[in-house]
Amino acid sequence: MSKTVILAEKPSQASTYGDAFDHSERKDGYFVVSDKEFPDAVITYGFGHLVSLFSPEDYNEKWKKWDLNTLPLLPTEYRFKVSDGKQKQYTIVKKHLDEADTIIIATDGDREGEAIARLIINLSGNNHKQLKRLWINSLEKEEIKNGFRHLRNGEEFYSSYKEAETRQIADWLVGMNLSRLYTLYMQKSGMKGVFSIGRVQTPTLYLIYQRNKEIAAFVSKPFFELYGRFSHEKGIYQGKYAGRFDSEHDLEAFKERHELNDHAPGKIKSVKTEEKKQFAPKLFSLSDLQATANKRFNYGASETLKIVQGLYEKKLVSYPRTDTNYIGSPEFDYLKNALPSYLNLVNETIAEPQLKENKRYVNGANVQEHYAIIPTRTLPNLAALSQKERNIYVLILYRTLSIFEKPYVYDETTIETTVNAVLFKTTGKVEKAMGWRKFYKNEKNTKEENQTLPSVREGDSVVSHFYAKEGKTQTPKYYTEGTLITAMKNVGRDAEDEENKAILRETEGIGTEATRANVIETLKKQDYITLQKNNILVTPKGETLCEVIQNDEIANASMTAKWEKYLKKIRNQEGTQEAFLSSITNFINHLIQKVPGTFENSAIKKHAEKSEADTAIGACPLCHKSVIDKGKFFGCAGYREGCKFTLPKKWSGKTLTKKNVKDLLSKQETSLIKGFKSKKGATFNAKLKLANNKLAFDFSDSQ
User: Which residues of 194-249 form beta strands (DSSP E)?
Assistant: First the structure.
């Protein structure tokens, strides 16, 4: 009898699959399952990435040390190994794959999930076996059963795996080579620490840096606007002149030039009333959900992904890592059938549900891998969800309910009034049908409310009164995690070069739906950015790197987008891994040649001096340079020039504080320190002092 092995991504996913079979028995690292279609099957699983790329030292022991002479690190072939700490589970998985006749890939249905499974299968030596693919959009029992009944051919997804593997190798090449390259030159210039470089993280950091610089350089300027208050026999309304004035004096001169005096007669040039319709917003892609959740609840991008992933695993929402805003006809049908239950869940009603497909939301041609994030048929007990889960679920639910409501409809009236040939424009609106907006009636509206207008006609006369309003040009806003996710997706809109703009538009900017949140988290972990009241600020470390790389291609979002475009070609079987990695290799070699000049022409030494001054504890008694924290000890910054002055961090069992060291450097002695230990283990108190620039005890005040 043939044996089928189902390979899941993680234990919870495997357990959920097991529940969809007639019989399921949990074992150590796998499940034994069976039903009519699968009389003899095993579900086993990884812990995410069970397999990872070799480290540099796995290829060559000399590559372990960070040394400019070893660059570039270019393996002749890219090899994979079992990830650290995961050997036990890999052994279990390999045993079952070795025994399998058919392997069903049931990891997450995206490029990364495909790569996770295939790399395990490859390393285990089982890539010659028959491969099938489970392709589902929710973890509901019926969806899983249906997915196993309609397995897809594994060959359909091979190119997605090659794209993901190529991306992984490219990121390894860029990260390993360029992080070492820039870090070593930073250190040669006097900077401390490691400077991580990444194919997506670095242009993203530079994007934030540019915005922060723009804000720092911005000088707010006052301006003045001219308004008219017009009296008509049917009522009073306000109008605004389109131009702006730099000063009140300029505004008054304009009024005088055009004889805009109070009580000046005016004429109504035109009155237009137009009915306008505003359709509900599109359904959520992951990045749209992350942006909205950040704006509404201040949730970070990773936090939102974690919450929605949890809701997916609870079978309450569809697959979250999606880049589309559309659903297909089958999804619309089940939403339509479940509509009364959804409405009842949140105590809402829709008087006339729109039950015909609308291509704004339902368009199978725009669903490439997974459809938009929508509720599943499974209804939650809202009270049983955490507050954050409830917030995200309700956000998704209301966005979905909105597509069944009528459009928001209003009449917009525009009045053009002239006084001595100067045109004033007035806009007002009358709401006719709230439609989908009734679901969002409690949302804050930052826009000014439109005024209610009197009933006037073209040619009517009015009497004028004029007044000025002062405003100030607004500082650009800092990125939040939500607006940064959107900026990464839409970065091409700001590209000056038309070819780059087209590439960025085609690739939807930099990063992918699944990786953008992780890029932001990496920038935080590397101490390149920090959050302050939801605003993203670049740290001094991040600023230093950006000022060095600003003229290097690694800072350019267009370069990353061109790579993404070619990776997409690999998925579409129009490009090859070999060609792409060759271009990455050429890029790395180019920067190895260019970067020395980059540092010569940068202000890096000034940054190093400032960094040293910021971290200085005191002046060296030998050469008067700064004494700084060197990790395991305190030492002179003049070490390269020959100064060997150091102070230990621990002395006779007692850890010295920075205050102790400051006192030694400034006063030649500390205050009384308690808790030293002798070689025999006795505890004693003493001061420390510098005697001939060496550390010594002072027992003169040890009582």
Answer: 222-232, 235-245
